[in-house]
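#help-structures

NK: newbie question. if I give both the sequence and a SMILES, will the prediction place the ligand too? trying with NAP
OV: yes, paste both and it writes out the complex. here, I ran yours:
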Amino acid sequence: MITTVDDIALIPGLLDRPLRVLLLGGTGEAAALAELLHAAGHDVTTSLAGRTREPRPLAGKMRTGGFGGADGLAGHLAASGTEVLIDVTHPFATRMSANARHAVAISNTRLIVFERPRWAKCDRDQWIEVASLEQACAALPDGARVLLALGSQHIAPFAARSSIHFVIRMVDLPSERLPFTDFTLVTSRPGDVASETQLLENHRISHIVCRNSGGSAAYAKIEAARNLSLPVVMITR
Ligand SMILES: NC(=O)c1ccc[n+]([C@@H]2O[C@H](COP(=O)([O-])OP(=O)(O)OC[C@H]3O[C@@H](n4cnc5c(N)ncnc54)[C@H](OP(=O)(O)O)[C@@H]3O)[C@@H](O)[C@H]2O)c1
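OV: that's the protein plus ligand as C-alpha cells.
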C-alpha cells in the first residue's frame, strides 16, 4: 500500500524495468501517477469509469467504462498482459477496489493500492461526523441552506428534505431532471479557498455536506467553512 504518489518509487524492484501498468483512476493522484510512470518509460493505461463527460488529459493511454465485475477485470488483465494493477480510485469507490482485490487473486497480477489519508479535524472545525448519507440527511435542520458537495449518484436521499435549500455542485450538467424542490445547481469543480468562500457567501450557505475524501483537491471548502465558522456534516469512511 502507498499513501503518496512519490511512495511508488520506494516499492522494491517495481521501477527497475519497463512494465505494463493499469491504473484504476478517476482521481488527481491517478493522473499524477500516470505522468510519473509514463515519464519513467512504463506502458501506462489509466482506466476511468466514465462518470465525467470531459475528463482532463492524462499521460499514457486511457480506457473508459466498467470491466463487468471482478471476473471481467481479471479477463482484461490477462488479455492486455497487465503486469501491475494500481488502484488509485477515490477512497469511496469501494466496489471497484473490492473488484481489484478479487481480480488479482484470479489473474495472479501484482496489485498496489494507493490509500489517500483522510482529513483530520482541526480545533476550529465544526464537524458533525456521520456514517452514511441517510445520517447526513437527518443531521440537517429545517430551513438550512446546504452545499451538497457529493457526487451526483449520492444526492438522491436529500431530495426528501423539502424544507431545505440545496446548492448542488456537479462537474457536468445532470442528464436527468433533479428530484429536488428547492435547489440551485452549480456546475464547477472544487476551487481554491477564496472561490469556495465566495460560493458559500454568495449562496448564504449554513451547512456543507461532504465525505471525508482526504487529499488536497477538495480541501479548500473545509478551510473556507472553518474560516466562516460553518458546520460541516462529514460522512466518514
Ligand atoms: N466515489 C466518489 O465520490 C468519487 C469521487 C471522485 C472520483 N471518483 C472516481 O469515479 C469512479 C467511479 O466511482 P464510484 O464511487 O462509482 O465507484 P464504485 O462504486 O466503486 O464502482 C462502481 C463500478 O463502476 C466501475 N468503475 C469504477 N471505477 C472504475 C474505473 N476507474 N475504471 C473502470 N470502471 C470503473 C466498475 O464497474 P465494473 O464492475 O463493471 O467493472 C465498478 O464496479 C472511480 O474511478 C473513482 O475513482 C469517485
